[in-house]
Write a structure and sequence with these properties.
By secondary structure, this protein is mainly alpha-helical. It has a domain of about 110 residues. About 75% of the residues lie in helices and about 0% in strands. The protein is elongated.
């Protein structure tokens, strides 16, 4: 019995030690398992990152198929990584697999509706699918969304992409509205204003285009592209003398530009053929009127079908030329031109100052009538058509 008591006492003395050892072993086992788990997770993350890096390189090189494979492998190690999913969607887009890309992007959009790149990619898919309304919606969302990089740059680029899309669909009105919003938020950067000027020129907003090019030239007075753009905008606005100067300055920078040389010639001729310019002598004005009248006569001969037409402006011209008699009313353009021709001399124009305007009204009527259906106008005829659209004195 004493022996049994001794064994119990011995066991009771050893029990705390055993429990302590077991606890230590449990802790060590837990630490080991946790460490192995962390190591495994880290290894998985490293492998995912490695495949992701490879995929990004392939994507940047426009090798979309291997990029898709790389990003899919990366997602095996990090299934819920939104950046991996986004890059996979972009690679799928590059490969033309819009449906698969859309599935990833819609899922990402539901989790992050304010993600700028997700919205931009969804806009691009809508463009490919021909869904105009959805495309515009996602482009607008991208413009006001959150971006990880330079937000102002990314938002501006998204708007520029929308403008290009609208121009591609022929919607110049909405493209113009987007450009006005864009121009209001441009930085003090000549390159940005030059791009805006070019796009305003494309949508036919020549006043805004000229203003944007003016900002470029204020910073860089000898920028050939800006000088040419300003010349084209001025030309479309009917400011031919200003256009002439811009084209001259642009050609001084790039003297071999054939297009600029042609545009300068058109501007010079339009200025030269305008008898209503201020501060020119009577002799010069008379010479212009006689040249314009002769050019209109040649146009009539080249287009006899239109020569038989008549018009109110031509009738008024005949009335003025005849000193108040309504000889123009009901007459053909050819008849009016023939009747007026003997008076279109320097002496005749000096004796009857009102004949300058009357002759030019007849010239303009002939040029307008022959604009369609008579073939391409000569350079002089085209210049006279442009002058016909100007208010007197310009």
């Amino acid at each position: 019995m004493n022996h049994g008591r001794k064994e119990r006492r011995s066991y009771l003395r050893r029990a705390p030690v055993i429990l302590t050892l077991l606890s230590v072993l449990a802790v060590l086992f837990f630490v080991a398992v946790t460490g192995l788990s962390h190591a495994f997770t880290a290894q998985q993350g490293a492998l995912g990152s490695r495949w992701f890096t490879r995929g990004v390189a392939e994507l940047q090189a426009a090798r979309y198929q291997p990029a898709v494979s790389d990003f899919r492998t990366a997602l095996l190690y990090s299934r819920d990584d939104s950046e991996y999913q986004l890059k996979l969607a972009e690679a799928l887009l590059g490969e033309g697999r819009n449906g698969e890309a859309s599935a990833y992007l819609v899922n990402l959009w539901e989790r992050e509706p304010e993600n700028g790149l997700v919205n931009l990619d969804l806009a691009r898919i809508a463009v490919r699918n021909g869904d105009r309304e959805q495309a515009i919606r996602y482009y607008h969302d991208a413009m006001y969304a959150t971006w990880t990089g330079n937000q102002e740059v990314e938002r501006r680029e998204a708007r520029l992409e929308l403008v290009a899309f609208l121009l591609g669909t022929g919607d110049r009105v909405q493209a113009q509205s987007e450009l006005i919003a864009l121009a209001a938020n441009l930085e003090d950067d000549p390159a940005q204003h030059a791009r805006a000027g070019e796009l305003f020129l494309e949508v036919g907003d020549y006043e805004h285009s000229l203003a944007e090019y003016g900002l470029v030239l204020k910073a860089e007075p000898h920028d050939a592209a800006a000088l040419a753009g300003a010349g084209r905008a001025s030309f479309e606005l009917g400011q031919y003398a200003k256009a002439e100067q811009y084209f001259e300055d642009a050609l001084a920078v790039t003297p071999g530009d054939a297009r600029l040389a042609g545009e300068l010639k058109d501007a010079e001729l339009t200025v030269a053929m305008n008898p209503f310019r201020r501060q020119i002598s009577f002799t010069e004005r008379s010479g212009i009127v006689m040249e314009a009248f002769a050019a209109a006569g040649e146009r009539l001969q080249a287009c006899p079908a239109e020569a038989n037409g008549s018009g109110s402006s031509a009738a008024a011209a005949g009335q003025i030329a005849a000193g108040g008699r309504n000889t123009g009313a009901g007459q053909s353009l050819a008849a009016q031109w023939t009747e007026m021709k003997p008076q279109i001399t320097e002496r005749g124009l000096r004796r009857n100052p009102g004949l300058v305007e009357a002759a030019m009204e007849l010239v303009f009527a002939i040029e307008r009538r022959s604009e369609s259906g008579c073939g391409a106008p000569s350079a002089t005829d085209a210049a006279l058509l442009r002058i016909a659209k100007l208010p007197l004195g310009n």
